[in-house]
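USER: Please consider what follows.
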Amino acid sequence: MRRLVTAALACLLVFALPALAAEPVVAPAPHSFLWRVTGCGPGTLYLLGSVHLLRPDGARLSLAMETAYEEADRLAFEVDIDDLMAAAPKMMASGALPEGTTLQQVVSRETYARLKKALASSGVPVKAVAEMKPWLAALTVTALELSKMGYVEEAGIDRQLWDRAKKDGKGTLALETPETQIAIFSELTNDQDEAFLRYSLDDLDSAGELLDEFTEAWQAGDAARAEALLKEGFKGYPELYKRIVVDRNKAWLGKLEQWLAEPKTTLVVVGSLHMVGSDGLVAGLTAKGCTVEQR
């Protein structure tokens, strides 16, 4: 199940494709991956757990999500997607190994062999990633595999709502900068860097099935199932979990409190795995005394 979490992460740095023109389809469901937050000031927050990469036929918003969008004065995302697209050269520069160093030299023989095999299945020669740091090679092989399976960024919930907000003239906010997201990976230690690559290669062949399973949980608003997948996904990788989930959630909570102190309704759209568990945003805001209700 580890691959599921990598899939959720890989999309952080791949917002570079044109958006779909189709409007999202409303899908009835008893619950949504959406929470309404009140009671911590004059403002209202809607927390919408996103699936960043979806197959086009799976990009359905619930009626509750549509209602939250209509009520929102503004939308907040993990990052400004336009800025992230423009930051692609910075990402590539941060993910490049020092001149004269190759990926084969910085990872174990076993890890390199696994990467080579994974790339070959996508018809990509290993020399295409020869000068990349392990984390960028990991994101590359992940993106290739998901693309092969029909998962695309332009069908993801973030992209749908970003484009609609721009079209409808709703304001947009960002929880972090592209540089912050790049630093999540570029500041990994050498051991963590290779661990992330190994993590990304785990269960690669079953990536589509795992994302299908998570998408089903998301469409049903099944937070308990999503939490179980999160725990299973990061099992054995506590440092990555802290860096990728816990630290970022803690940083975001301060901004969410700020927005609740303003007399506005804000729809916050972030990865679903940031919502669940004892370290999630839902638990964090509940602990601060806010009223948090799943819609």
Notes: Residues 1-29 have pLDDT under 50 and may be disordered.
